[in-house]
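Ticket #4471: structure export looks truncated?
Reporter: QA, pipeline team
Priority: medium

Steps to reproduce: submit the single chain below to the structure queue and open the exported record.
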Amino acid sequence: MEDKKFAILIDSENISSKYISAVMDEMTKHGIATYRRIYGDWTSSQAKNWKPYLAENSITPIQQFNNTVGKNSTDSALIIDAMDILYTGRVDGFCIVSSDGDFTRLASRLRESGMLVIGMGEEKTPRSFRAACSQFTVLENLIDAEEEELAVEEVVSSKNGKTKKTASKQKDTAKESTVISKEVIESAIINIITENENKDKETGLAEIGSRLINKYPDFDTRNYGYSLLSRFLEEVPSLELVKTENKGINVRVKANVESRGEITSYMKQLVKKQGEKGMGVNELSNKVHQKYTRFNIKDYGYSQFTKFLQSIPELEIFEDGSGRKRVKSTD
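Actual output as written to the record:
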């Protein structure tokens, strides 16, 4: 199959030059870079950091003077070039390298035209731009671990009173604020598996990876300290990996430690104690979650807690005078 052709467009004013080699290496996973352009004011002193990398990576610098103080003049030049390239019909996708949220609309517009849009930016990149891309990669994840340590040490040595430990902690805190929580990812995976089970299908590792990126363009196992999706999933408590006969890997939800019978018995006991007045459905749900911390209604084949209750013959759901749902025992 022929490799996809990409235009790599780099905003030099919103990322560091130290990432450029890693960006070019990462793009080899997606296809061939037929356009390689970087935008900035090359007459400024700041631009000198970029010059050694341009010839080495065959990147064409596009001059854009800063005519207005405080404005990023590269935005308009990059956007105009992107639309010109789009209309040539010579590429299958774009890689926009920037941490600037102003490129959100450009990414959306390119996707609307059927383009694959790979976004790359630092951890500070706004979620709006991340979500607008087909796939988004955090640049810090592309740097080798040893290089990251050296970078932190350089920051420490240049600022009095800051320790390496403090710098690392600040970086980790910033990352946590932008990365999707593992709990959200876990819930999304369980939904995928449940949907497939309803269609009598097994869920493969590759499908999990593909659908997570479709839902969360900036999902990357490297955000959580893993190099492989399989390693990441092995650490998710509710999931297990199963090897197939053809050496593939399927993902499934682990059988709950607590049986359905045990949970059902506990709920009937709680409700019966309340007598004829019964118990609020939300209150009952909270008590079940408090006792069984890993309880997930979807593990039992239901999308709603009330549906689960309706399946228990000894319990009956009704509405009180305020229209709130309650449940009582029919024993």
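Status: closed, not a bug. The export was complete when the record was re-opened. Leaving a note from the reviewer for reference: The first strand starts at residue 4 and ends at 11.
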